[in-house]
Amino acid sequence: MTIRSSFLALGSIALLMSAVWFAPDAVSPPVASAAEPPKADDKVFETKIKPFLTTYCTSCHNSDKQAGGIALDTYLSEAHAKKDPKTWEMVLETVQSGEMPKKKAKQPTKAEKEFFVGWVESTLTKKVDCTAPKDPGRVTIRRLNRAEYNNTIRDLCGVDFKPAENFPSDDVGYGFDNIGDVLSVQPILIEKYMAAADSILEQAIGNLDPVKSSNQVFRPQNIRAIPRSANVRETNAKGQEVRKIVFTEEGSAFLEKFNFPADGEYTLRVRAWGTKVGTDDPKMTVRLDGKDAKAFTVEAEQSKAKTYEVKQTVQAGERRIAVAFTNAFTDKETKKNRTLGIETIEIEGPISGARKPLSDSEKLILTVLPTGDSDKTKTAETVLKTFARRAFRRPVKPDELTRLMKLFALADAQKDSFDKAIKLPLKAVLVSPHFLFRIEDDPKTPAEVKTITEHELATRLSYFLWSTMPDEELSKLAEKGELRKPGVLKAQVQRMLKDPKAAAMTANFAGQWLMLRNILSLSPDPGTYKGWDEQLRAAVIRETELFFENIVREDRPITDFIDADYTFLNDRLSWHYGVPNVKGSEFRKVKLPDSRRGGIVTQASVLLVTSNPTRTSPVKRGKWVYENVLGLTPAPPPPDVPELEKTVLKGTLRQRMEQHRANPSCAGCHAKLDPLGFGLENFDGIGKWRDTDEGQKVDASGVLPDGEKFTGPAELRKVLMRKADQFRHCLSEKLLTYSLGRGLEYYDRCVLDDLVKKLKAGEDHFSALVLAIVETDAFQKRRGKRSE
């Protein structure tokens, strides 16, 4: 055992350390800093752009005020501005949308605006030619995150005890924990992988040694008998009560649930005696699970009981064994009864060393078993080839199989049983980088774009939709080269979305996009919210999970996320919402009785996760809608602005917010976020409807920077529906990021535009977006490693 452990530890760590690592492709642009003298030929920036900024922008966006965290007076030349494309993309976005300059501020002419937008787009941002071949990007090699590891072990080994719960937490990038750039490997994680592999195999594969034959004898006190009259109680010479089974009428003595440990041949013996009355001796029948095994005529007298036996092939498991008295008789003249006495029931076996039946996990891993020492090596090779193919998610290379067989030979040489010897190479598979990492072959040159293999495509697809390894159907299609055939890929996407394993999208995509995971750590103040309890916490999470699952499973339009006339409630949550006639703890689909709620924005989960422990937060709620529905990114607050709680302000929450954003540095962002948040002020910090707050009527009105006005959540949802294209773009961006496992770059803009078009053409059905993503070059191809 010491040799095996040492060998595996060294070999596995070497395997892990041999994994190929790639640096992230994205490079952060430099931030505008010290002044830079303009170049002599920098005429357009000097004569057109700087005057535009001075006239319409820098009164707020200067180095003193830094409204929205942006200071445009610091850019003194075109070369200087080119160093910060992200800021100029933000400027371009706000000017194009009409958010800036503000409605009350001086406005540029149409010609001025078009020139500014065109020049910034062509000069300062990375413009993409969508008619040219698309850059699919490059996904950094990444390990399985904790959820993917647990799911893959479940499907690979047939165990479901979630070994990754003991692993370090996964880092998050771009909003998700499956991003290759941030999924690092700490030394402690290698130790965890080793320990997890041992635990997995220990649970998945038990002792396969033949079951030893045993002999069990059951006496009357351990045997049930029907009718009751067959249960005779007597007192022996010592004054002790003795139980006997004596039938005077038809009935049976039985063992209700005897567990046969293995398939095989067993001998069933019954020691019995009888009293002959009339012309016949008593007869008894041995039955197994209600079926007759053998009938006997009992000629033995009471003082000379005899053993009657039957050999029977039995399948492993719990079985009912009965001994039936079948010819009861009473002599009318003598009034004597024919009787049958049962002294013992005996079971011996299995004969000839049968194996106990394989568990589901053993059947999954040990596809064949050796019949003896002569075929152990061949059997091990078959088992390892199948297991490694499934674990590596591709065909196994001959040299890989050779190395695994050397490990088996090492364990077998120590005279280990087959089940113990096979665990050594199986463990090597479970700690191999080809299992722990999703490895894709690179193109031959850095500039080359390569279509990924069908096995790699099947892997991308299964981890996107199921967070686990491909199933046999996907793997066989990939092996035959048929996954990309017309109609096949679409059929597979539709099949996978309806499979129960698609619930992984709810847990891992929706759980992070909608911040459901955060709810588990929230602690609303019990003094402020007396209705809050753990039952309600579970209910608000489950509502949103079922809502998301329904859209996926029923292939509903994604606009249901913004506004829908239904949700999922049980009695606890319906009481919280004030929705009548919902009884019982089971969740069910419920049509909403009014327009107060609809879609995810008004569900208690979102309202809770965007509140503070003692009050609502219009800024958090507005920011959530701004980022997760409209797909926009607000600028970070200036570093010198105090938090609202630390600012001495008076009045209602709305009045205090208005005083807070009187600071010009705050006004820009708050004008975008606050109205969206105030539209949800009719909901308290745990999502319950309210008409008043702090004794005053709730003011849920808002005006967006583009002039759109609304009052209350119903009108806010109408505003968001009018901005449905922004939501389509937002959801496409988030789902594409999640599916690829990388952040999106400037060259992905064309892909996102295509996704929005295909989504609209597919009548907004969720499957249309998924299929559009799967068909993109970004999903089906990869670029070579970026050259220096």
Automatic annotation (TrEMBL):
Entries under Pfam families matching the protein: CBM60 (PF16841), PSCyt1 (PF07635), PSCyt3 (PF07627), PSD2 (PF07624), PSD3 (PF07626), PSD4 (PF07631), PSD5 (PF07637)
InterPro entries, per the entry: CBM60_xylan-bd (IPR031768), Cyt_c-like_dom (IPR009056), Cyt_c_Planctomycete-type (IPR011429), DUF1585 (IPR011478), DUF1587 (IPR013036), DUF1588 (IPR013039), DUF1592 (IPR013042), DUF1595 (IPR013043)
Signal peptide (UniProt feature, chain positions): 1-23
Annotated keywords: Heme, Iron, Metal-binding, Signal
All residue ranges annotated as the Cytochrome c domain in the record: 36-124
GO terms, molecular function: electron transfer activity; heme binding; metal ion binding
Name this polypeptide is given: Cytochrome c domain-containing protein
Species annotation: Limnoglobus roseus
